[in-house]
Design a protein that fits this description.
With 198 residues, this protein is of the alpha+beta class. It has helices at residues 39-50, 94-97, 150-162, 169-176, 187-194, and strands spanning 12-20, 27-34, 58-62, 67-69, 87-88, 104-109, 115-126, 135-140. Helix 1 (39-50) packs antiparallel against helix 5 (187-194) and helix 3 (150-162) crosses helix 4 (169-176). It is globular.
């Protein structure tokens, strides 16, 4: 028997506060996602919200340390060594691993740089009629560039960019390929990018 599509009044929305761990001042986003969104789609939302480029492996982890990842990807070859406990992220929703307000879970992107994101459910609320989800409704600061070497590499990058006399100043500017303002956050463009995920 085919499942019936939920009406807007039946949908619930998770309001997620997402923080990149280990950097001060804090880099964060507030996202509205459907409670029934598969973790595989939440991965896509997080990539867009933080401006990552989908080029590395990732994993979700709940408070019981159960891990959820891309079973169709290279998890057996890179980072998990055939870990039989890795669960298929396509089969679990946001509500499955974080069912209520104050639920916590993690998202790790790039097992070399180890960008750890802490996600907290601020609240679970009904969907608003006429509103499209997912959405980014708030945030602060630009995420570090992909492949910059994790938190230590990011700190080194900022030091080099701040000081024109730094030995790596010009090299880092060329590597970035354009301007980079760590304090910049464009809510409108971030929300637009997040909304491309369906």
């Amino acid at each position: 028997m085919a499942s019936r599509k939920k009406t807007t009044s039946e949908l619930s929305i998770h309001v997620l506060y997402v923080e990149l761990v280990g950097i001060q001042p804090v880099i964060w986003r507030e996202l509205l996602v459907r409670s029934d969104m598969p973790l595989s789609k939440l991965h896509d939302v997080l990539q867009e919200a933080f401006g990552w480029n989908h080029s590395h492996m990732h994993v979700f982890e709940d408070t019981s340390r159960r891990r959820y990842g891309d079973m169709a990807g290279e998890a057996d070859d890179r980072g998990f060594g055939g870990d039989a406990s890795l669960r298929d992220e396509r089969e679990y929703s946001v509500a499955d691993i974080a069912p209520r307000a104050r639920s916590l879970f993690g998202y790790i992107y790039d097992f070399g740089d180890d960008w750890v994101h802490r996600l907290r459910v601020k609240k679970v609320q009904p969907a608003e009629p006429g509103k499209r989800y997912p959405a980014c409704v708030a945030g602060a600061r630009a995420a570090p560039p992909d492949d910059c070497g994790g938190v230590p590499g990011y700190e080194r990058l900022l030091k080099a960019l701040e000081d024109p006399e730094h030995g790596e100043h010009e090299e880092m500017r060329q590597w970035l390929g354009g301007p980079y303002d760590p304090e910049a956050f464009d809510l409108k463009s971030t929300d637009k990018a997040v909304r491309t995920i369906s």
